Amino acid sequence: MLRSLTLKPSSLLSKFNFNPSPFRSRVVTTQAFSSAVSPPSKAIVYEAHGQPDAVTKLVTIPGKELKENDVCVKMLAAPINPSDINRIQGVYPVRPEPPAIGGYEGVGEVYSVGSAVTSFSPGDWVIPSPPSSGTWQTYIVKDQNVWHKVNKGVPMEYAATITVNPLTALLMLEDCITLNSGDAIVQNGATSMVGQCVIQLAKSRGIHSINIIRDRPGVDEVKERLKHLGADEVFTENELEVKNVKSLLDGIPEPALGFNCVGGNSASLVLKFLRRGGTMVTYGGMSKKPVTVSTSSFIFKQNILHSNTNWNASEISSGSQIHQTGTHLVSHPVYKILTGTHSKSVPVHSLSHRNA
């Protein structure tokens, strides 16, 4: 699910006047309008897979009639995750078939409801949970079962980004093995949104984090930012080209749990840190290189490898598990740290775009 690591500037984002940064999630805000037929909606659509700057366009969609169980939601904000870009490109495994509207999570305000809807009222703030495709539009009409209320006191950008990256971080920390204060985890892709959430959630629980990042210009500044978030150690991949990486731990216990979202050599570095019997969870593969595991990791260290596919929304029948965890996290004090300083809002109506 998930944020990929450092989001590189794409022509789509520059076309839409975005200024990507690896330490920011991007949020799109919308304007308002006003009845049993939804207002016309502006939407970012694509009719074929391809590079976003070539296949997306901003169009106006006619209003849709509400069925008795439908809820019309005026979208307030929707993030642009790297996985959203990958869906448009057609390379993300879980994706809608075109023609489709972009976006996969966000927060909106109930605009109107169908005749049989009693759980929602105009003005309520809601999120789609599990995440639902098509959030890059100003009005969405979907069955009431798609929507879940969130507290209107929660800052908009927090609610808009709760169901993908922070929730992935929380579930990986809680559902894989039992971690106690004083334990340690290791992860690659530490500058990703998931990675930053892992650092902060681990810190809040007294869990040490060892973080692996790409070599890059300005790496010292990146390290300082991650340590300011709560990282215990931050290493570049080149710095780990040593015979015994555990000699770098400086008193931190050998990690029991590792997170891999890169693949290739970076995944091997995570495995090198793990203690005997430690577990590595793979939740992404942004290098597009396979995870290669040494024979000694299996035979002598008895490392365990997992993926996070059991958290896919398609395998959670009602979405209640994700909803309950997500709405708990969105009100958690640590979530103010998780996304509050790393977002930038851009109104849909200000985007430059190709006409339909």
Summarize the structure.
The protein is an alpha/beta fold. It has helices at 11-15, 52-55, 82-89, 156-160, 165-175, 193-204, 219-229, 264-273, 295-299, 320-330, 335-339; strands spanning 25-29, 41-46, 56-61, 70-80, 100-101, 107-113, 125-128, 139-143, 147-150, 184-187, 208-213, 233-236, 257-260, 279-282, 304-307, 343-347.
Overall 3D form? elongated
Sheet with the most strands, sense and barrel status: 7 strands, mixed
Overall pLDDT level: 79
Instruction: List SSEs in N-to-C order.
Output: HEEHEEHEEEEEHHEHEHEEHEHEHHE
**Euclidean distance between termini CA atoms:** 30 Å
Q: How many separate helices?
A: 11
Radius of gyration: 21 Å
**Overall helicity:** 10-25%
> Which secondary-structure class do the elements indicate?
alpha/beta
Low-confidence stretches: 1-34, 310-320, 352-356
Fraction of residues in β-strands: 15-25%
- Tally the beta strands: 16
Write the layout of secondary structure elements.
Layout: H1 11-15, E1 25-29, E2 41-46, H2 52-55, E3 56-61, E4 70-80, H3 82-89, E5 100-101, E6 107-113, E7 125-128, E8 139-143, E9 147-150, H4 156-160, H5 165-175, E10 184-187, H6 193-204, E11 208-213, H7 219-229, E12 233-236, E13 257-260, H8 264-273, E14 279-282, H9 295-299, E15 304-307, H10 320-330, H11 335-339, E16 343-347
Parallel strand pairs: 1-16, 10-11, 10-13, 11-12, 13-14, 14-15
Antiparallel strand pairs: 1-4, 2-3, 2-5, 4-6, 4-8, 6-7, 7-9
Helix pairs in contact: 5-6
